[in-house]
Amino acid sequence: MNHQNFSLDEIALARRLRHAGLPWTPAVGHYVYDESGIIEAPSPFQDRVYFILDLKHFLRRSETIDGLIRAMFWLPDWRQTRALLRARGVSDETVIAHLSRERAMEQGAELIALYRLLLAKLEG
What's the domain range around 115? Predict the structure, then answer.
């Protein structure tokens, strides 16, 4: 499995997405940040970042989906973030213009730029 490392800025922005009301239903294929420390095993990726491969494993720690949502927050990857933007009516052209304006490609900060665009849409 090819895993993704999340920068501190990406994690902070994902936390802001959560507080801005980004709906999340935990599912296989989601990266999460274990804010409450309910997962005792060290992360194979980076501190407190886990990948949901088996949802039952996470539910054993949190007991319920709501408990999991309270304990962790979602770190949408690039594809998931693009899907979230599309679902909110953000066109590909708008995304391209935003990435260009932010100089995201040159700085290697595409996910940060996408998170910011999604945050603006949620807070809009």
Answer: 8-123
